[in-house]
Amino acid sequence: MLYGDLVLVALIVIGLIGRSSIITTAACILLIVKLAHLDRYLPAIERRGIELGLLFLTLAVLVPFASGRVQPKDIMDAFSGWIGWVALIGGAIGAFLNSRGLETLKADPQLIVGIVIGSIVGVVLLRGIPVGPLMAAGITAVIVKLVQLLAGK
Q1: Would residue 150 count as lying in a domain?
Q2: Could you tell me if residue 134 is inside a domain?
Q3: Counting CB atoms within 10 angstroms of each CB, which of 28, 59, 136, 142 has the fewest?
Q4: What is the pLDDT of residue 89?
Q5: How far is CA 98 from the centre of its chain?
Q6: Over the stretch 28-87, which tens digit does the pLDDT of each residue have?
Q7: Distance separating alpha carbons of residues 12 and 23, to the nearest angstrom
């Protein structure tokens, strides 16, 4: 068994122990792709996986609009109080951090190792949800920039 296969099996076990169906399922799918000798698709999964994941996440978030559960009045009400405005600012900051995260991962791809392990720790120990590798990379970029500024580099 190759090292990558062992890592995937370990992730499956960690996912099962940590009751994280997302990590378990993702590792299972990748292991099946490898064992079925479909390795040629791994670069495409890597290249387009984030886009597809974001697409489905966005679809899920927009369903209430498409189904008519969110009406124009609801949209207006959302911005009638300070919490709605904070949500708007939070969304803008999140989008900004995601863009910084994408730039950071493109410039320094080895950071993905720390982000993946950190995500697993967050899922298993903190009961988090691993939907934010771009956000994690964006937060990493901000922290690195702050440390560099404070250290005078």
Answers
A1: yes
A2: yes
A3: 59
A4: 93
A5: 9
A6: 999 999 999 999 999 999 888 878 887 888 899 999 999 999 988 888 888 888 998 999
A7: 7
